[in-house]
Specification:
Layout: H1 2-13, H2 16-32, E1 36-38, E2 49-50, H3 57-68, E3 81-82, E4 87-89, H4 93-106, H5 112-133, H6 140-172, H7 179-204, H8 211-233, H9 236-239
Antiparallel strand pairs: 1-4, 2-3
Helix pairs in contact: 2-4, 2-8, 3-6, 4-5, 5-6, 6-7, 7-8
Amino acid sequence: MSENKNVLSFWKSTGADIKFLMLILVGFMLLIFDQHVTCSWLNGIYPAFQQSYNINEEFQLYTLNYVFGMKANIYEYSIGEISYHLKVDIFPDLIGYIFITIGLLKLSGKTKIFNISAMTSMFSIILYVVIRLLPFIFNGEQLSYLCFWLVIAQFGLDICIGYMFVYGICDLLQGYQYVRDRKAIGISWFVTVIVNAAVLLLSWLSAVINPALLTFYNMFDLAVNLLFFYFVFRIRDYIFGYRKA
């Protein structure tokens, strides 16, 4: 009971700005923490995939497996159709983008860069939905290429959102006394980008790599991102001027 009271007391005593900052950090956490479950009852939603022989077969399998969960072995099929084995992320990226957008919009009065970052996050929401609708419009070669390049574009937007968020935080932490904090936030965020890119590549290759390797990198990715979140959260009162160094 005392722990619940402490949590409730902390939440009540926390300023609105810090709550929105926490919402943004939770949103970023949803983006990097993926846990997929296969939902066979969803398999009939999309039209069956028509395999294209104009491009590499592995490329088609890896790309569609990453986005939609195509677990079937492509070599078990002759010319014709390959079925989707749809998967659902229990930590939805879409909810993460929504949290980030709301938080950035609420904090946009603090610095203009947050408003630009929020607009970018809105575009990420649209792109995320568009990618999931592509199988209703395209198939085969077109679908594979579109998914591949749009996923890369989505990752690029994630980097832009994160960069502008970090830039905004550092802009609010003006002054020589916060130099070390700005460096810690900037360097830790840069490391998260590198590790996130490595995990993205490994996830794309998940059909052929050792699952234990992917799990290890996912855990390492989570640890690096938590370190970045810690550096931001520990100076939350200084970011919004509740305390002075």
